[in-house]
Amino acid sequence: MTKQGKVYLIGAGPGDPGLLGLKAKECLEKADAVVYDRLADPRILAYARKDAEMVYVGKASANHTMRQPDINKLLVKLAAEGKVVARLKGGDPFVFGRGGEEAIELLEAGLPFEFVPGVTSAIAVAEYAGIPVTHRHVATSFAVITGHEDPTKGESTINWKGLATAVDTLVFLMGVENIERISSQLIANGRSADCPAAVIRWGTRPEQRTLVTTLGQAAADVKKHNLKPPAIFLVGEVVKLRSQLQWFDNKPLFGKTVIVTRARAQASQLTKQLEEQGARVLEAPSIKIVPAVDYAPLQQAISNIDSYKWLVLTSSNGVEYFFEQLTKAGKDSRSLYGVKIAAIGSATAKALAAHGITADLVPSAYKAEELADALQQNITSGDKVLIARAKVAREVLPERLRELGAQVDVVTAYETVTDCENKDELLALLENGEADMITFTSSSTVTNMLDILGDKKDLLQKTVIAAIGPVTAATCIKNGLTPAVTAAEYTIDGLMSAIQSYYKE
């Protein structure tokens, strides 16, 4: 039986990935192909299946990757092949999203479709700027107008007279490039040149920028401040309320750009916390966590796991890869009965807890030296200790334990490799002086980032260095970098606290 194709015409919202709807997420997760626009956030695209066909059809001013008639034909082609297609559009498909045009073409081809509404930028962007489109006693009506009419239709069909005098709040989408014409038309048709106005660029995103002006001054101010699309142009008395309702750009780290060098799979926790505080984050992982090339030593240790008095796990990655091999050996947590388990740090302990195990020992300070000190009270000569860790790591812990007379087996649970898939984006940020801070969460992230940058590593001298703890800070110093921020507690939460304190000073 031939699989029936279908197209979901999805509104991705105005920019903040957190504004994506649940149904939109579900459609992305099951799609065979994703056709997406310029403004789609990478984190939204990450909901797509790893094997999904990804097709970029973004359109910027005077630069169309694919024109609308060709996009329509592409959707028909993919659906006719029996594919479930997620057509991801910024904002809402029916608010200047040309979703109706795409649906009509599918209808004419006899192919099924559904609309999945999205949060429109017409309201959300204004809201993130602290400007309500309606407000009791101030504005009882609003209109959403395109700032870029179809050039093929000849004369404008916008009712300038009605808009100028009959509607309280006007929201022009895609109107920045035509702001002079829009302003002059409204003034000519009765709107006061002194009417409050605002231009909001990259609304709902950490790089949001809001310019408060007047209708008569708007065009000159946009030129003066070099504001470019994407942006909305809002006109109305409600703009005055921003002074009271401004919230998004009041966040502690708003306006700061932070580079996160942690492995992609683990960066989300730090990224999320930074963005919650208003920061713009570039994830530029300098390391990638990969399975060990040779698991024979770990598998041998697991087969004799009951011979060990202590199992030491030094990271959440170590936990996950250890248990993966434990499962492959036909064992589970019960196999660890009688084995005491030590964990470096709360994150490692939490990963163990997810497997139903409470760590017997977690040092007060999350580094090898502290763990060695803590184990000293619990190790006697001849005790066997298994350390499952990254292939490349400091030898402090095994050396200290051997000095106590312990028999120590160090096995590789995972490896770290140098990786930075968006090096060009990283370099552009550093070269343009846009990066306020770069974070390092391990010695490997430091050394790998220096390898990635090569002869451009001096660019790191132009930004604030933040280290998760003294070991990472020491690696920075060893390589000519001076951390301005070093976390007192060697965790992501501790690093966030240190970053916030730094910017409060």
Distance separating the two termini? 67 Å
Q: What is the share of helical residues? A: 25-40%
Q: Indicate the radius of gyration in whole angstroms.
A: 28 Å
Structural class: alpha/beta
Arithmetic mean pLDDT: 92
Beta-strand portion reads 15-25%
Number of domains: 4
Number of strands: 22
Strand order of the largest sheet: 3-2-6-1-7
CATH architectural name of the largest domain? 2-Layer Sandwich
CATH class of the largest domain: Alpha Beta
Q: What would you note in describing this structure?
A:
The protein is α/β, with parallel strands linked by helices and 505 residues long. It has 4 domains: 114 residues, Tetrapyrrole methylase, N-terminal domain (Cobalt-precorrin-4 Transmethylase, domain 1), CATH 3.40.1010.10; 128 residues, Methyltransferase, Cobalt-precorrin-4 Transmethylase, Domain 2, CATH 3.30.950; 116 residues, Rossmann fold (3-Layer(aba) Sandwich); 128 residues, 3-Layer(aba) Sandwich (Rossmann fold), CATH 3.40.50. The protein is 34% helix and 21% strand. The protein is built from 19 helices and 22 strands. The protein has a 5-stranded parallel β-sheet with strand order 3-2-6-1-7, sandwiched between helices. It has a 5-stranded mixed β-sheet with strand order 8-9-12-10-11, sandwiched between helices. The longest helix is centred in the N-terminal third of the chain and has 13 residues. The radius of gyration is 28 Å and the shape is elongated. The model has no long low-confidence stretch (mean pLDDT 92).
